[in-house]
């Protein structure tokens, strides 16, 4: 568009390292952050996962999961109306990522991939991911992430919705 800066090359070369502030929140490339986030769940090396977590989350960052239906039904039977699963801090996030990797990725059944819809509005970033069968390429699960970022562009709260 005439008069508008072309930031396509700038967006490709940006990293998640804050280089400016917009609305008191670091400028973060949404696709880059979402790619790093999804890459975490596919990462086999615990030390690399640890570094990714420390790069993405604030120290007291939260991960709040709206559990899938198979977890909601037993909770509802016990009298819980709307169960959520919550963790806080680096150590808990490392355990969560390791457990998900061991269950879904390590056996070779699935990989996680990003859908091309990462978007940011002020300090909120949202995107969808897919869990894909390595045998068939079929999508076995879909999730929505809604991330709240701090002024440095780190995740303070990660709301995860398993959609299918």
Query: Oligomeric state of the chains?
Result: single chain
Unreliable residue runs: 1-22
- Topology-level CATH name: Nuclear Transport Factor 2, Chain: A
From the coordinates shown, what is the CATH architecture?
A: Roll
Largest sheet at a glance?
7 strands, mixed
Order of helices and strands: HEEHHEHEHEEEEE
Give the overall shape: globular
Structural class of the secondary elements?
alpha+beta
pLDDT averaged over residues: 86
Strand content: 25-35%
Distance between the termini: 38 Å
Number of helices: 5
CATH C-level label: Alpha Beta
Helix content: 25-40%
Total discrete domains: 1
Task: Give the structure's gist in a few sentences.
The protein is an alpha+beta fold and 164 residues long. 34% of the residues lie in helices and 34% in strands.
Description:
- With 164 residues, this protein is of the alpha+beta class.
- The protein has one domain (23-162): Nuclear Transport Factor 2, Chain: A, CATH 3.10.450.50.
- Helix content is 34%, strand content 34%.
- It has helices at residues 8-13, 30-42, 46-56, 69-77, 90-105; strands spanning 21-22, 25-26, 57-66, 85-88, 110-114, 119-121, 124-133, 139-149, 155-162.
- Strands 3, 4, 5, 6, 7, 8 and 9 form a 7-stranded mixed sheet that branches. The chain has a two-stranded antiparallel ribbon with strand order 1-2.
- β1 and β2 (25-26) form a beta hairpin.
- α3 (46-56) packs across α5 (90-105).
- The termini are far apart.
- The model is unreliable at 1-22 (pLDDT under 50).
């Amino acid at each position: 568009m005439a008069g508008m800066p072309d930031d396509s090359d700038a967006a490709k070369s940006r990293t998640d390292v804050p280089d400016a502030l917009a609305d008191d929140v670091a400028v973060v490339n949404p696709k880059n952050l979402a790619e790093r986030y999804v890459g975490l769940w596919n990462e086999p090396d615990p030390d690399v996962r640890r570094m990714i977590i420390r790069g993405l989350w604030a120290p007291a960052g939260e991960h709040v999961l709206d559990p899938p239906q198979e977890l909601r039904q037993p909770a509802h039977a016990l009298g819980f109306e709307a169960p959520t699963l919550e963790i806080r801090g680096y150590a808990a996030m490392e355990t969560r990522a390791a457990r998900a990797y061991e269950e879904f990725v390590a056996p070779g059944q699935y990989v996680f991939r990003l859908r091309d819809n990462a978007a940011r509005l002020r300090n909120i970033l949202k995107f969808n991911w897919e869990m894909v069968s390595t045998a068939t390429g079929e999508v076995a699960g879909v999730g929505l992430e809604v991330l709240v970022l701090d002024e440095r562009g780190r995740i303070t709260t990660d709301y995860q919705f398993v959609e299918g």
